[in-house]
Write a structure and sequence with these properties.
Elements lengths: L1 H13 L2 E11 L2 E11 L6 E11 L10 E6 L7 E10 L5
Length: 95
């Protein structure tokens, strides 16, 4: 039993995961996640913020705009969706 749990944990750690902010949840069971990364410019040495948007599958439809979520790569679910929301890292503050 412990060997199965260890193997399952190892598989989860090998999955490609990203952390980003939800910028849209207007689609059914789909959220748009903005992932930002800092990259050093090869010549000037200045750090530049680069970003990508990913469509992620949210089965429960419980994630709202502004939440910080972790997404993991999965099999293609639709033409643009190849990521799944694994957990909510931080819930957005409602003002």
């Amino acid at each position: 039993m412990n060997a199965e749990n260890a193997l399952e944990n190892q598989k989860k750690s090998l999955q490609h995961t990203l952390v980003g902010k939800v910028v849209s949840n207007k689609m059914t069971k789909t959220v748009t996640v903005l992932v930002e990364r800092r990259q050093k410019h090869p010549i000037y040495g200045k750090y530049i913020v680069k970003s990508n948007k990913y469509h992620a599958h949210d089965e429960t439809d419980a994630v709202n705009e502004g939440d910080v979520v972790e997404i993991a790569a999965s099999r293609p679910i639709s033409r643009t969706k190849t990521w799944k929301v694994t957990r909510v890292v931080k819930v957005a503050q409602v003002i």
